[in-house]
Design brief:
The complex is a heterodimer of chains A (103) and B (372). Chain A is mostly beta strands. Chain A is built from one helix and eight strands; from the N terminus they run ββαββββββ. The relative contact order of chain A is 0.22. Chain B has 372 residues and is an alpha/beta fold. The chains are: A mainly beta (103), B alpha/beta (372). Chains A and B meet through helix 1 and strand 4 of A and strand 8 and helix 3 of B.
């Protein structure tokens, strides 16, 4: 959920003017925001599953250190979504295990 | 085949948080060609999400919010024409003066006469059954979401850790619109400042000391958490479990210096618990055991933004002195002033421990110098 009003930061200035695709589903995003932000705003919590046990992982450290939030972005696997900004028409996929390089 | 281009600079600063920004400003002011490199696409580090007002004295911007300090520093960086390389990862250091940098999938080499590592810290994890479920995240990670990205991580939150980070972020989650169910801490007391815990108490949020997380549960993401009371040996007390329905668990159990680059550069290290773990050895000029490589801020031991800024300055003053861009007398005087200001932060029960940690590092650095 987006924080539209904030007692210190004021009203939300950014507007969700672009669309990205997540597992075939179109969601809106604010230019410049991180992929993980657009996903969480759309209610998506599971970003990938682990290689051995298939356990779900999501946003954890927010600074590109833990690699829990890695997804396949425009056919490139293991992109850290918390430090990668969205761009128009970006195709994002939930990553299973190590993912597949499809370039 | 294309050969890698070699870029050059006088002073390379790695990290554009409070320590790095101060270092870059000080180096550029002295006339050094300065390059600041940051992995995140925007500079400012953790300042960009700190919407609370700072403490301390006027020199340390007391009463000013972190976000406003950041904006001012970024203005100075631009005025001084510091070269900015944002969204750029430093993936190694070669021959103690060449930084391997990558931007948009392309690697380049940057030769720097002096390197200042201001790489900051990462949050400590806390393992309990269910801690890997989506919905469990660092308190700082949640703070990034709410204050920088303007996204609510969840509706009902449990905060683990009643230190300053836990208390501040719990309050900021409230400001953002989440319900904070409780703050728990295994310690029998609240370790954060009273001014922060008082805000939480006034909001009617219970701060449960001598409590910890037994487990988090949920199908594919957090649906709830079992909190348990612990005795003074930190052992769970049977039948004291409380089931709390939450969708988010924030972990605020300390920070660890991010020092991979110092390891890669072959700097000597020591363990200092009060400063967050392994830190590179350095002297009062913030120079590590590798000549020309300096360290500042949380990467030199976990403290706070105000101390990080001073250390950034000290490192840069020493670097430009060594480059011959500043006289020894002036550098000595500026460092002495910075240490005088630092003194006010390194007193009191917490500050004193950190001060002792710093003194320990300097002594270890001295011993190392005597050995070689």
């Amino acid at each position: 959920m987006r924080i539209k009003v904030h007692p210190v930061l004021g009203p939300l200035k950014g507007k969700a003017t672009i669309e990205i695709e997540v597992d075939g589903r179109r969601i809106s995003a604010i230019p410049g925001e991180m992929i993980s932000s657009a996903l969480i705003a759309a209610g998506i919590k599971v970003f990938r599953t682990t290689h051995k046990k298939g356990e779900p992982r999501g946003y954890f450290c927010g600074i590109g250190q833990c690699t829990d939030c890695m997804m396949t972005v425009d056919n490139i696997p293991s992109v850290r979504t918390c430090i990668t900004p969205v761009s128009k028409g970006m195709k994002i996929k939930t990553q299973y295990g190590h993912g597949k390089w499809e370039v | 085949m294309g050969s890698m281009s070699m870029l050059t600079t006088d002073v390379a600063v790695v990290g554009a948080g409070p320590a790095g920004l101060y270092a870059a400003i000080e180096a550029a002011k002295a006339g050094a060609k300065t390059t600041i490199i940051n992995e995140y696409v925007e500079p400012g580090g953790q300042l960009t999400k700190q919407i609370h007002k700072f403490f301390g004295s006027k020199e340390h911007a007391a009463g000013v919010r972190g976000i406003d300090i950041s904006a001012k520093l970024l203005g100075s960086i631009d005025e001084l024409k510091v070269e900015k390389r944002m969204g750029t990862l430093v993936w190694s250091i070669f021959h103690s003066n060449i930084l391997a940098i990558a931007h948009n999938g392309k690697s380049e080499m940057l030769r720097a006469n002096k390197i200042i590592l201001a790489t900051g810290a990462s949050e400590n994890a806390f393992a309990f059954p269910g801690w890997t479920l989506p919905g469990v995240m660092g308190a700082g990670a949640a703070q990034t979401l709410i204050n920088l990205q303007r996204i609510l991580p969840g509706n009902r939150v449990l905060m683990v850790g009643a230190g300053n980070v836990g208390l501040i972020v719990a309050f900021q989650l409230l400001q953002a619109g989440s319900e904070v169910v409780a703050v728990v801490d295994a310690l029998p007391y609240i370790s954060g400042y009273c001014v922060h815990s008082a805000k939480i108490a006034r909001a009617g949020i219970p701060i449960l000391t001598s409590h910890t997380v037994k487990k988090a549960y949920g199908e594919i993401s957090v649906e709830g958490v079992m909190v348990v009371k612990v005795d003074n040996q930190c052992k769970p007390i049977p039948k004291s479990e409380q089931d709390m329905k939450v969708d988010t668990i924030c972990i605020a159990v300390g920070l660890t210096p991010l020092v991979e680059l110092a390891w890669l550069a072959n700097c000597r290290f020591t363990w200092v618990a009060s400063l967050g773990g392994y830190v590179p050895l350095y002297d009062d000029k913030m120079e590590t055991t590798v000549k020309g490589i300096y360290v500042a801020g949380d990467a030199a031991g976990i403290e706070e933004a105000s101390t990080a800024m001073e250390e950034g300055s000290i490192a840069a003053i020493s670097a430009v002195e060594s480059l011959g861009l500043m006289t020894q007398q002036r550098a000595y005087a500026l460092r002495a002033e910075a240490y005088e200001r630092l003194r006010s932060f390194r007193i009191g029960p917490f500050g004193k421990l950190r001060d002792q940690g710093k003194q320990f590092i300097w002594r270890e650095r001295q011993k190392y110098a005597e050995r070689i």
